[in-house]
Amino acid sequence: MTPHHIAIVMDGNGRWANKRFMPRVAGHRQGLEALRRCIRLCLDRGVGVLTVFAFSSENWARPADEVSGLMELLAGALAREVPSLKDNGVQLHFVGDRRGLSDKVCQGFEQAQGATAHNRRLVLNICFNYGGRWDIAQAAQQVAQSGEAITPERLAGALALAHVPDPDLLIRTGGELRISNFLLWQLAYTELHFSDVLWPDFDAPHLDEAIDAFAGRERRFGKTSAQVAPAVHKTSAA
Ligand code: IPE
Ligand code: IPE
Ligand code: MG
């Protein structure tokens, strides 16, 4: 079964570039190509929601030229990619802390979201200046300000991804076995898939491998295997 919501930590751009004696930003540029390809694949496979980690709260600590290169790539993508996403039924959301981002980028986010809000084929969440800890803290602050009790349900409703169900499958490329402050709350029962492929090389066989692995998992959500196994129907002839 195809997962409804796939989340991806798109990691390995820097190493992809290093291997080719290219600047790290060249890896990010190629990473953008891989994302474009991955969106098409998800559309083809009937995935409902794709959530990608594009820039973390902690990535500001990288060298200034890499951070500015990533901001330029983002601005270029906002200017160029939105029309085709719009035409292909993609509903865009930019998820993360807007503080620290330029007014121009924030306006670009709003315009892209507004232009694609009516689309229903694929919800694409781009997590930019996102951190799982930031998300939980901002949600807790919202609930506290409302004066309501802080319950899991109320908190979930205030998180930055409240418009979609939790991810079914998380893919991390680049070989690292960690979450790196991605969706800390939402990954509670997500199936995890780690791939050694560097993100710029990620293509159809790697996505299909992850989807196949997911299809073989038994999701128990705390229950026993007997409780969740599909019921075997006895026929009256037996
Ligand atoms: C992921 O690739 C993209 C961002 C974090 C923006 P990296 O840049 O982390 O690539 P590696 O891990 O150094 O290879
Ligand atoms: C996670 O990758 C963030 C993104 C992919 C945007 P990092 O490369 O920043 O993670 P660490 O530093 O290896 O944990
Ligand atoms: Mg990395």
UniProtKB/TrEMBL annotation:
Q: Which cofactor does it need?
A: Mg(2+)
List, alphabetically, the PROSITE patterns matched: UPP_SYNTHASE
Output the superkingdom of the source species.
Bacteria
Q: What class of enzyme is it?
A: transferase
Keyword flag Magnesium: yes
Question: What does the sequence similarity comment in the record state about its family?
Answer: Belongs to the UPP synthase family.
What does this protein do, in the record's words?
Answer: Catalyzes the condensation of isopentenyl diphosphate (IPP) with allylic pyrophosphates generating different type of terpenoids.
Q: Would you tell me the protein name for this molecule?
A: Isoprenyl transferase
**Gene this protein is translated from:** uppS
